[in-house]
Design brief:
Layout lengths: L2 H17 L3 E4 L15 H6 L9 H9 L8 E8 L7 E7 L9 H17 L5 E8 L2 E9 H8 L3 H4 L3 H12 L13 H13 L8 E14 L2 E16 L2 E18 L5 E8 L6 H8 L2 H10 L3 H21 L7 E2 L15 H10 L8 E7 L2 E12 L2 E10 L5 E10 L2 E6 L4 H21 L1
Parallel strand pairs: 3-4, 8-10
Antiparallel strand pairs: 1-2, 2-3, 4-5, 6-7, 7-8, 8-9, 11-12, 12-13, 13-14, 14-15
Helix pairs in contact: 4-7, 12-13
InterPro entries: DUF4825
Pfam family, one: DUF4825
Protein name: DUF4825 domain-containing protein
Amino acid sequence: MNKKFLIGIIVVLGVIVSLIVAKIFLDFADKNTEIPINAKNWDEQIYAMRTNYIGENSKVSKIVNSLKFPEELKYSGIELQTSDSLPKSLNIIFSSSNENQETTKNIKSNFSYNAMIILSLIENCDKVELSINKNGALYTIESRQRQWATELAGKDPFESTATLEDFKEYIKQIDSIDFNEVQTYTPNLEESISNAILSHNKDKVYNGEFAAQGHITLGTEVDGINTTAYVYMTYAQFQFQNGIFEECAGLSSPAVITFTKDEYGNYKLSEFTETKDGSLYEISLQELFPDDIIDMIKLYSSNTKQQENVNNQIVSSAKEYLTEIGREDAKIALSYQEKNYPPLSPQNSEIYDILYKAYADFPYYVGTLEKLENHIRYEYKTSYEKQDLSDIFSYTKTNMNTGDIEEHVKVQISGGDIKALEGEIRSTFYEFKKSYDADRQAAQGYNN
C-alpha cells in the first residue's frame, strides 16, 4: 500500500475521531480514590479537587467517588463528554439488579443534591446525568443542568464556591433544600407534564403528606421550540387517617400545558391554563381546546379505562412513596373512608365547637391522623367516651420517631361547662371562648 496513502487514511481517521462526540468511559468502581463522606475534613478534601476543566479525569473521578449514592444503586463509573461541539457533561453510571429500574423520589433527590456539588466544583461542566447500565446498554434516566442549579442557588454554583469557606456555606445552603419539592427539567414530555401538574397544583388544596397526579394526554401540538399538551388531570393529596393512606384532598380538570425546549432538549413549563368552574366551564372549554379534544374531554367521564389509567398512576406513586418510608403494607384509599364521629349531647355542642377550634390540628373524628413536622412524624389522636350527659374528649400528640407523648389533655364537657381531667387545656381555647362570648353578648344586645 502506498505510504502516503496510508498516512492520508490515518490523518482522515484522526479527523473523524476528533469530530465524534468525545466520550471517555472511566471505571472507578475501585474506591481507592474515595474521600470518605463521613470524614471530618470531607469538605476540605473534596474542595481540593475543584477544577476548571471536566477533562481533568483524576480530579473529576475523585469528586464523584466521594459522593454518597442510594443503596439501591451500585456505582459503576463515569463517562465524560469533553467535545467543544456539544455541552460538556458528566454521566454517572450505575448498575442495578432491577432491570426495570425507575427513579424513585429518593434517587431523584440524592442525584439533585450530588449534581449541585459537582456543578460547584467543575467549572465547565454544563450537565450532570445519571444512567443505568442494563446488559451493556446505557439508559439516561435523570439530568441536571448548570442553568437549573444556578436558578436554584441564586448564583452560578462554581462562582458561589470561590473559597473553601464559600464552599462550606454553599453546602449548608443545599443541605437546607428539600429536593423532593424542587422542579426539575427533563426531555421526557410525559414526565414534564406530570411535574407541571404537581408544581401547579401545590397549595391549591389542603396539603396532606404526599401529592400524586395522574393524567391522560389527549393531544399535543408543536410550534418551533414550543410544545402544547392538552390533558385531563387528577391531582391528589394523601394523609394517614386511622392508619390508612387516604386521599384527603384533590381536584380534576382539563388543562392546557405549554412548554419551551431549552438547548439540552428539556421541556420547561411556560404556561399552565385550566378550565374555569361553574357556569364558566363550557365557555373556557371552547376557548382553550380544539373541537376534537373537547369531544374527548366530554367522553372522559364515561371512559372507565382512562379513569382506571389515571387512578393507577396515582396509586403507583403512592405505593412508591410508602415503600420509601417503610409503610408498604398500608392500605391506599382513593375515596373517603367511613369515620366514627362523637354523638354529642345538644347542650354540649357549642362548647365543643370552641374546643375543636383550639384543637383543629387533631382529627374531628374519633381516631388518628399523622403529620410530618420538620421531618418528624407525629400521630394526632382524638379519643371520645360518653358518660351520662357528659362528653369526654382526649387529645394526644405522640412523636412516632421516639414514642414520646408531647401533648395530652382529657376534658369533660357537661351542661355547657368544661374542665380538664388530665393535662391542661390550650390557652387558645380561652381566647376563642372569650371572643365567642363577646360575639354572643353583642348579638343579644342587638336583638334587644
